[in-house]
Each structure stands twice: as C-alpha cells, then as structure tokens.
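Annex B.
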Amino acid sequence: MKKYSIILVVLLTFYGSVCIAQTAIVEDFKPSTLNQPGQDYPQVNSQGYVRFRIAAPEAKSVVVSLGLGGAKGGTELSKAEDGFWKGTTAGAMDEGFHYYHVTVDGGVFNDPGALNFYGSTRWESGIEIPSHDQDFYALKEVPHGNVQQILFPSKSTNTSLRAYVYTPPSYFKDKSKSYPVLYLQHGWGEDETAWSNQGRVNLIMDNMIAEGKIKPFIIVMTYGMTNEIKYGGMASFKIDGFQTVLVDELIPYVDSNFRTIANQKNRAMAGLSMGGMETKTITLNKPEVFSHYALLSGGTYKAQDIKDKSKVKLIFLSCGSKERPDAIKSSVSELKAAGFNAVSYVSEGTGHEFQTWRRSFKELAPLLFKD
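Esterase: predicted structure tokens.
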C-alpha cells in the first residue's frame, strides 16, 4: 500500500509541474478586436486567455461570465488600489466569438469596453479570440456584397417583420441575372442580426466568391420566433407560426422584390442550433419548397423521415468536435447508404459556438446549388 502511495505522489508531483509549465500565461495581451473605439480592455493574449478591467469603485463583487447565458462559468475579478477590478480567465478560450456579461453585486451588466451582440435573448458583450484559420472570414480588399434590412408584411402576425438580405457583389452590376436563395436561421436567444454580426457570413461569402470557390447566391436571414421559449424548452416550441411567416409571407416577398430563381431546386434552408430544429421540421413539412437542407449543431435526419428522395439535392450536417460528432457521422453514413447526397463536417476544437458555425458555413457554401 505504501509503495502505491509513493508512486501516486510522484506522479502527481510530476504531472502537476508539467501542468503549471504548460499553463504559464504569456504577457502579450492586446485589446480585443471587438472593443469599443479607444478602449484598451478586455484584452486577449496569443494563447487565448482573456484579461478584464472593470471600473466599479464601490462594488463588493465583480464576476465575468463567458459563453451563451454565462454557461462557461465565471471569472472573479479582484479590486486594485485604483478602484478598477481586474482578472484573467483561468484557462484559454476556444478560438472565435464568445458572448459574455459582467455581474456587479448581483446585477447583470455589459462590459463598457466591448461591443454588444444580440444573444441569450439580450444584448451581450462580445469578444473575439484570434483563430488559426480566421482568414476565411477576415475583411479583405475584395468586391463586397450588400447586407440590407427589409420589412415585409405579415398578415399572420398583423404587422411588418424584419429580415436581412445578403446580395452578392455582382447583384447590382448585372441586373439581368437571377440567383438561388438560402434561408439561414439563427439559434435560440439570437435574432436576424446574428449571422452577419457574429457569424460574418457576408464576409465569408465575399471571400469565397472572390476566390471562385462558390456559385453566388442570395442569403435571407429573419427572426425565427424562438425566444419566447425558455432555454431548454425546445420540445414545447410550435413551428406553425414561423412556418407560415417563412413559407407563405417572406419567401413570396423575397421572390417578388429580388431577382431570385424562384423554384424548389434553387432554394435552400439552413440553421444553427434551434434554427436547425426549425430547418429540419420545415423542410420535412414542405419538401416542395426547399431542395437543400443543412443542420449546423441542429440535429440529424433519418432516411425514413424523407418521403420523396428525388426532391432532396443535399443534406449537410455539422457540429463541433466538443459536441456529438459521432451522431452526425452516423446519420450521414445512413443517409448515404439510403442514396442521399449527404455530407458531414466536424469543426475541430470547438463546441456549440460561432466558430463551429462559421466553419460549417464555409464547408456548406460550395455545395449549394451545384449544377
């Protein structure tokens, strides 16, 4: 017994020292690229650690919560002599975009130093952890498309609703050309601004079009009517209202006001997380409307769910490696065996977050509307 205890102590000592050496923080912190103009904090270093500095001289406690709804835990800040609260995350964050907020003596606030993004059913602070593959969504000197807000009439809700429409760089140059359309949905707690603000989908499109990697198409992003459902209550969500808005109101409006190829073959639907659930339900309910289906961290399809295989041109399933990649791969294998054009993608090193969905969109876009 003593022999094993000694070995255990040695192992703990050895691996503990290795752990400390591996997690030594490199002091090369720089302001986040998503900071408000002129603000030095928050800061990010080359390892992905985040350092915060919050002015709250009278506070007794300041905690920063990272992730959707603060799900990734909190970083307790310490008060310095100058009245500022300072602290660094205990570990490196995953690459890409993250929501966060600050809790001061029990009250929830945004960080005054950071830009805000709509997530968790509220405007949250945002931070960007530099990624090794960030070039594909970087702002470059290439021709840029246009993201415009539209207001479309909705008889079913007795009001006008908002959507954002991305048109490719060539849209206003060659007015004789029409385009396929992707209807792209956000996740729970987000809205129609998410894919362009957090997802940078317009920049991904611009860059891939400039590189000749994709066929240009229009993207339409609207509110999925999901946020009335509490987090975790997806089973109680009813699709009928949003399906009516999308299929009977938004699509006819877009086809009447934009140069679209208005048929099932040239219409796709995709969504992340809860938007994936909406995509799955609507595409199965309305196979005559969409021909390309994509679920990004949003579940899977079964071959028996689809009544007419000839109507489906593509099924794309993706997630992060920290989610359930085996389920994605297994579903795609079964779909392929049943004769579907099915593709899986797993984002390495990411979870249920926008870096997964940015990468997923990059893989999806070249597969859409192929001749």
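The CA atoms of residues 26 and 275 lie 38 Å apart. The chain is about 25% helix and 25% strand. Further annotation is deferred to the next reporting cycle.
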